Amino acid sequence: xxxxxxxxxxxxxxxxxxxxxxxxxxxxxxxxxxxxxxxxxxxxxxxxxxxxxxxxxxxxxxxxxxxxxxxxxxxxxxxxxxxx
Length: 84
Known about the structure:
By secondary structure, this protein is α+β, with helices and mostly antiparallel strands. The chain is 35% helix and 18% strand. The chain is built from three helices and three strands.
C-alpha cells in the first residue's frame, strides 16, 4: 500500500501545488480564486503557499487563494492581438 508519509519533505507536494497554481493563473479570469479542503493538521502547508484558512470545525479547514491571470508578455500580446 502506498504511504504518502514516505514522500513528505521531498518537495513533491510543493512542486505539484506550484504547477497547479501556475496553470490556473495562465487560464483564469480576473479576480478568480482557488478553494480547497485540507486534512486536519495539514493546513499550514497550504498557508505557506499563500492560502488563507477558512475554518470548518471538525472537518479540517477550507482554504482559499485569490489569483489574477499572469500578464501576457509583449510578444504574446502582439501575437494574440494580430498587431505586428
